[in-house]
Design goal:
It is a single chain. This protein has twelve helices and 13 strands. It is of the alpha/beta class. Among the domains are: about 110 residues, Rossmann fold, CATH 3.40.50.20; about 80 residues, ATP-grasp fold, A domain (Dna Ligase, domain 1). Strands 12-11-9-10-13 form a five-stranded mixed β-sheet. A four-stranded parallel β-sheet has the order 2-1-3-4, with helices on both faces. One of its GO terms (cellular component) is cytoplasm. InterPro entries: ATP-grasp.
Length: about 350
């Protein structure tokens, strides 16, 4: 019997639906459950799970350390906790340009404030004062000021003038920020990318309140076939390069050009009440299929940091790739029975 553990935060409907679906498909040979973890030993810590789906360790350092320890014991962790610990959005934008994916003009800014032990002598390499006018001339106005490694639309501001930029920047404290060109978009999409292959393109309205249930709508004809294919290919390109098996990629579309503006979201929203029944069912099925594919791959652990960053390449396993699908149009997943859906909720 193989065991699958879920490490989650406040979300309820997606983890519960995923556990129910894995257990249904596993027929007792694969069993999924919520993880319970207390003190973790550095040595003699048994492998508790064959695979863990991590939805919260980026917010809880204890969980992140546990995820790395689990990987050391041979557990498959989705998403890779070593890469996720090292990743940031500014690097991602820089990488995207190297990969040929369109991104808005972006500038990394020094922090406004520092912890107590950092003094002026610690910052002798910093240019001061900053060339604010040159930065604004490059990025343009309006622009978006946001943390270089944040998520959940936290601490994100639109600035319309140099004076407004400096005023808001002065309130960012120890956060490291990026200033990014604001794309006056005609269309906006958010894409689930599962297993670095399957893509679901979702029309998305970022002006609606986050997690309000008003952001997503199902419209198979929202993008032209040519644009949908480019968006899906760009999403795959980014997720493969970053090594994320579960991620969302957001594109602001202007003049038929999709600009990737956010693609470091390895614990994306899949709540039934937020994304709606269609997308909730789709991602539940896609992640379930990913779990079973991962459990079939040959396991090999080598105790080097680079091996954990690139486990598939290091193992030399020619794992089967999922059939590529681009789904801006997709068939409705089969309905679960009413009683089963109620249990999942």
């Amino acid at each position: 019997m193989k065991r699958v553990g879920l490490l989650v935060g406040r979300e309820r409907t997606f983890p519960e639906a995923l556990i129910a679906r894995i257990n249904e498909r596993g027929r007792g040979e694969v069993v999924a459950e919520m993880i319970k973890v207390g003190g973790v030993r550095a040595a003699d810590e048994p492998r508790r799970y064959d695979l863990i789906i991590d939805r919260i360790s980026h917010e809880v350092p204890f969980y992140r350390a546990f995820m790395k320890r689990a990987a050391l014991a041979g557990t498959i962790v989705i998403n890779n906790p070593f890469w996720w610990s090292a990743d940031d959005k500014f690097f991602n934008y820089s990488l995207a340009t190297q990969l040929g994916v369109a991104v808005p003009r972006t500038v990394l800014l020094p922090q406004k404030s520092y912890i107590e032990d950092i003094t002026s002598e610690s910052l002798r390499n910093l240019e001061y004062p900053l060339d604010w006018q040159g930065i604004v001339d490059y990025v343009g106005l309006p622009a978006i000021l946001k943390p270089f490694d944040g998520g959940g639309w936290k601490h994100v501001s639109r600035v319309n003038s140099l004076e407004e930029l400096i005023s808001i920047y002065d309130q960012t404290g120890t956060l490291c920020m990026v200033l990014q060109e604001f794309i006056q978009f005609e269309k906006f999409v958010r894409c689930y990318c599962i297993g670095q292959e399957e893509v679901m393109i979702m029309p998305y309205d970022p002006t609606k309140p986050y997690l309000s249930g008003e952001q997503y709508r199902h419209d198979p004809d929202y993008l032209s076939p040519q644009l949908a294919e480019r968006v899906a290919n760009d999403a795959r390109t980014l997720c493969r390069a970053l090594g994320y098996d579960i991620n969302t990629v957001e594109f602001a579309i202007r003049d038929e050009v999709p600009y990737a503006i956010d693609f470091m979201n390895p614990a994306p929203d899949a709540d039934l009440h937020s994304v709606g029944e269609f997308y909730h069912n789709w991602v539940t099925e896609a992640v379930t299929a990913l779990v079973f594919r991962k459990l079939e791959e040959p396991a090999q652990v080598r105790y080097r940091w680079d091996a954990f960053l690139s486990p598939a390449e290091d193992s030399g396993a020619g794992a089967k790739k999922a059939k590529r699908t681009t789904r801006s149009t997709a068939k409705e997943p089969k309905k679960r029975s009413t009683s089963r859906r109620k249990r999942a909720e």
